[in-house]
Amino acid sequence: MQSVCVRRLWGSAQVSRLLKVTNINRSVRQLQHKKVMEDNKPWALISEPGKEGFIEDLTNIRKHFQILCYKDFLQNPQLHGPKIQAMLVWGKTPPTDPLTLRSLPSLKVVANGGVGIDHLDVPYINSLGVKVTNTPGVVSDATADMAMGLLLASARKIVQGHQIAVDPNKTYHKPQSLMGVEVTGSTMGIIGMGHIGCRIAQRGKGFDMKILYHNRTRRSVEEEQAVGATYCEKMDDLLKESDFVVLAVHLSPETTGLISTRELNLMKPTATLVNISRGRVVDQDALVKALQSETILAAALDVTYPEPLPRDHPLLGLPNILITPHVGTDTLSTSRKMVQRMVENAVAVLKGQSIPNEVKPK
Predict the structure, then answer these.
(1) pTM
(2) How far is residue 200's CA from residue 191's CA, in Å, rounded to a whole number?
(3) Quick check: is 254 catalytic?
(4) Is 52 left (phi over 0), alpha (psi -120 to 50) or beta?
(5) pLDDT digits over 186-212, tens only?
């Protein structure tokens, strides 16, 4: 009887050991399979995580790519360059200068985070057989929020009010200098009625603002009615009538210096200029003079040229200007959406599929 029990226990132990060995072998095979799958993923060159607003959650990128940070790439470009098939550009990093691009012979796509591609030489990149993509749409709401935030902060002098409220040397918290401008019922003129411009108009409508817009092509009647916007065929008419002029154009040879001395002189002396497009759209020397001479009331800028401005730049010393460091798209939700769209674009190129957001030379 005892020997029977011993045999049963011995048999059970053997079965248990066999199951453990089987499970270990299965885990090893799974790890080997996973490693093979990882090794088969294409390589992507990215900016440094956590830098320039690039989100640290790289899970979505790692699902599709093996990743190499630009700073690591620079340690040995000859070793790493030939394996890179995708470049995910965030905040102009990694750079797309000819020297860098020539070191990436297998590159198939430059996937840019954001709409603006003025830092990319698209014709040159295409000449290398490389596609260029961007992320329109996903940045529109965050950028429109920023435009309205700048407009409101400037009109109601929110930053100045905060500074006074927290200044330990101030005892009177409501000086006359904080008297602001009424936003509700005022006239907002939007130059550039693309996706972002339309989102800005929607927000203006919520403040019962009269919405004027100027665009290369007029929007449909239905689109105008949806946001309560009126088309100005001539930009001059918009400038003359608007209390707030909001710039939402793409940077191009046609829009570089779009707002200069002449245009600023057309604006009301009580008007505010808001720029969330690109710094080069505004002649900054002309803007300095207009603000100093009170040709216009104020300016609120999320973009300048260069970025950041030199610390001795005259714009930084003016009391009637508000500047933020190009943070129009910098929300966690929008950043994640941008990365997702960058990955979708890059994967589509590498798989030979239809590219959601290809940028082509104009």
Answers:
(1) 0.85
(2) 11
(3) no
(4) left
(5) 999 999 999 999 999 999 999 999 999
